[in-house]
Amino acid sequence: MHFHVLHRETIDSTNTALKRMASEGASEGTCLYADEQTAGRGRFDRHWLSPRGAGLYLSILLRPKIETTYLPLMSLLGGVIVFDALRALTPADLALDIKYPNDILLEGKKVCGILAEAGFSGHALAWVVLGMGVNVGQTEFPDGLLYPPTSLKLAFGEQCPHPTREDVLQGILDATATRYAEFLDHPPAILQTWREHSSFAEGKIITVSVGDRKLEGTTRGLRDDGALLVETAAGTVEPVTVGDVVSAR
Question: Which of 39, 52, 127, 191 has the most CB within a 10 Å radius?
Answer without folding.
Answer: 127
